[in-house]
């Protein structure tokens, strides 16, 4: 797993334990389903995949950035594309929050995808679903697992800079704080969540060092794999939160070992956790809207 200290990294794929956390917490699909656009926009998935593939071909690191964008969206008010809104009269953009400032990226790729989708099927595919599909496609493109993406999310009518500052796990949060943050999202009912959080934090420090590119996995920094766990076992974890996974909890230590020894187990858990994370408080039915431009509300000022 190639993660980086700051998500600027080559592949700060939020990974491994990511899944673990969600695995336990959130089994339902939240009213979403993979066939949502099959009639209204049959080419939607193909369009997203092809544009993500072009972006990742231009720059491998974009794969990690797009996974992180979905994560930072879902942890703030649910998976509703609130993270994509720019500042405007009534919006204080989440892009300026501590976890996001000078580090979150990939907005231009989302814009390109949105333009292509609006051409193919105007007003149909939400920005929140673009983020969910782009995270999955990015993962596959760098060697990670496939999963079916439940769809049908709608886009928010607002953003929350406070939520962005407070709800995303920070690199210096204590374990109890992290567990609390997961519980609030319905993703916590086991210590698995702790390891999930540690992994997320890792790719996404709250601030500082944002110009440093630091592969957390120096062995395979452009591929989605389980080297992150192998490195921890070998005493080559980069951050203190790596070490903590092995030393502070028997359950997370068992996961580190299991994932280091079995890449398929890791992939399976990761995929399930991404589905679970993607189910956090989606807007469905007539809630929210389908934005025409992901950066602003349809009725913007
Ligand atoms: C949005 O505007 C606020 C001031 O209202 C500013 O502090 C912040 O940096 C801006 N955010 C972005 C992403 O430009
Ligand atoms: C964690 O980091 C943030 C941002 O750098 C800082 O404001 C905060 O005081 C730190 N908290 C602790 C407990 O160190």
What can you tell me about this protein's structure?
Helix content is 47%, strand content 0%. It is mainly α. The longest helix is centred in the C-terminal third of the chain and has 16 residues, at 263-278. One 2-acetamido-2-deoxy-beta-D-glucopyranose binds at residues 87, 92-93, 95-96. The active site is at residue 72. It comes from Triticum turgidum subsp. durum (Durum wheat).
Put the structure in a nutshell.
Helix content is 47%, strand content 0%. It is an all-alpha fold and 301 residues long.
Low-confidence stretches: 1-28, 202-215
The global form is: globular
Largest sheet: none
Q: Helix-strand pattern, N to C? A: HHHHHHHHHHHH
Strand content: under 5%
Secondary structure class reads mainly alpha
Task: Report the average pLDDT across residues.
Answer: 81
What is the helix content? 40-55%
- Note the total helix count: 12
Beta strands, count: 0
SSE diagram, text form:
Layout: H1 16-25, H2 44-58, H3 61-74, H4 107-120, H5 127-141, H6 161-167, H7 175-184, H8 192-203, H9 227-233, H10 240-247, H11 250-261, H12 263-278
Bound molecules: 2-acetamido-2-deoxy-beta-D-glucopyranose (2 copies).
Name its key features.
mainly alpha; binds 2-acetamido-2-deoxy-beta-D-glucopyranose; 0% strand; 301 residues; 47% helix
């Amino acid at each position: 797993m190639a993660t980086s200290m700051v998500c600027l990294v080559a592949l700060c794929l939020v990974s491994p334990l990511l899944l673990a956390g969600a695995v336990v917490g959130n089994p339902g699909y939240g009213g979403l389903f993979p066939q949502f656009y099959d009639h209204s926009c049959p080419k939607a998935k193909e369009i997203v995949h092809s544009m993500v593939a072009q972006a990742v071909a231009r720059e491998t690191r974009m794969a990690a950035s797009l996974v992180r964008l979905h994560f930072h969206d879902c942890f703030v008010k649910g998976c509703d594309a609130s993270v994509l809104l720019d500042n405007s009269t009534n919006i204080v953009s989440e892009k300026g929050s501590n976890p996001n400032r000078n580090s979150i990226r990939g907005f231009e790729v989302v814009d390109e995808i949105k333009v292509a989708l609006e051409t193919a099927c105007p007003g149909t595919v939400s920005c929140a679903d673009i983020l969910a599909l782009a995270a999955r496609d990015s993962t596959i493109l760098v060697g990670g697992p496939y999963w079916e993406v439940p769809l049908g999310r709608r886009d928010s009518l607002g953003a929350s800079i406070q939520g962005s500052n407070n709800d995303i796990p920070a690199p210096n949060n204590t374990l109890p704080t992290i567990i609390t943050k997961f519980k609030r999202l319905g993703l916590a009912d086991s210590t698995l969540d702790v390891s999930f959080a540690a992994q997320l934090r890792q790719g996404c420090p709250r601030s500082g060092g944002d110009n440093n590119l630091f592969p957390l996995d120096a062995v395979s920094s452009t591929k989605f794999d389980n080297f992150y766990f192998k490195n921890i076992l070998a005493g080559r974890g980069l951050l203190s939160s790596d070490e903590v996974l092995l030393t502070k909890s028997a359950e997370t230590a068992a996961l580190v070992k299991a994932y280091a020894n079995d890449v398929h187990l890791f992939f399976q858990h990761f995929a399930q956790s991404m589905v679970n994370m993607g189910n956090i408080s989606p807007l469905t039915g007539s809630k929210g809207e389908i934005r025409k431009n992901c950066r602003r509300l349809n009725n913007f000022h």
